[in-house]
UniProtKB/TrEMBL annotation:
PANTHER family: ALCOHOL DEHYDROGENASE 1-RELATED, VACUOLAR PROTEIN SORTING-ASSOCIATED PROTEIN 11
Protein name: Alcohol dehydrogenase
Organism field: marine sediment metagenome
Pfam families: ADH_N, ADH_zinc_N
A GO cellular component annotation in the UniProt record: cytoplasm
Length: 266
């Protein structure tokens, strides 16, 4: 398998049945490479839950190559305002952050908590501010670079994971790989609020929750599993409209290992 997702490139050749694109069009390929198209999940637009879901660069060849092949149904037009390097993170970090926002149920004027402020969160905050939400950002203790970036992007308050914000949260999204923020978010969530977990895995468990303290009053926990086509189709034009600015550091190909180490270090 060829690795690499968040693919951006130009259409070089077309299959005989392709109608959505023409040669030379700039397109992107997200984490979702394909699904069966026939099951109940696919038919309702939740291709990410399909039992035959295939991931780009994991189940099917990815973008660390000169060419790749993808179904037109899983390729997306890239807005002109984004360079290739700016568009690439929109196809994973951006799209899944948008899905998390959508699943959180956040409404304009309401208070959103973001736990962790990395690749996905720094894009999600720009969407949330466009929707006129108040955004509180929680990071690890002493993570000043992330906190400063959050302030630059419009955060209404920033603090550490266990800090108490000035107001309770209507919704929260946990982007971290650890379990504690889920409990912390539930503890400062309004009645009827929702915590969305946007993480592939947790390296330690979510702490035990006292039901009366953390889950009473119809509070909810919801997970995010990959992305569906709808998310990319809605988010990419919206990102261009908002004029989202992804923070990108570029590396030469022979610096790939260095880039991966920095990514692992957060």
């Amino acid at each position: 398998i060829v690795l690499g997702h968040e693919i951006v490139g130009s259409v070089e050749a077309l299959g005989s049945g392709v109608t959505k694109f023409k040669a030379g069009d700039r397109v992107g390929v997200a984490w979702i490479y394909s699904s069966c198209g026939k099951c109940d999940f696919c038919l309702r637009g939740d291709e990410n839950l399909c039992d035959q879901f295939q991931a780009t660069g994991l189940d099917a060849n990815g973008g660390y190559a000169q060419y790749t092949v993808v179904s037109e149904d899983f390729a997306y037009p890239i807005p002109e305002r984004f360079s290739d390097s700016q568009a690439a993170p929109l196809l994973c970090a951006g799209v899944i952050g948008y899905r998390a926002l959508r699943l959180s149920g956040i409404k304009p004027g309401k208070i959103l908590g973001l736990y962790g402020f990395g690749a996905s969160a720094h894009i999600a905050i720009q969407v949330a501010k466009h929707w006129n939400c108040k955004v509180f950002v929680f990071t690890r203790e002493g993570q000043k670079d992330h906190q400063n970036l959050a302030k630059e992007l419009g955060a209404d308050w920033v603090g550490a994971t266990r800090d108490t914000p000035p107001e309770k949260l209507d919704c929260a999204i946990d982007f971290t790989p650890v379990g504690e923020p889920v409990k912390e978010a539930l503890g400062i969530l309004h009645k009827g609020g929702r915590v969305v977990i946007n993480a592939i895995r947790k390296i330690n468990p979510i702490p035990e929750l006292d039901y009366a303290k953390y889950m009473w009053y119809e509070k909810e926990i919801k997970s995010v599993a990959n992305v569906a086509r709808r998310d990319a189709e809605e988010f990419l034009p919206l990102a261009a409209q908002i004029e989202i600015i992804p923070t990108v550091t570029e590396f030469e190909l022979d610096q790939a290992n260095q880039a991966l180490v920095l990514l692992k270090q957060g």
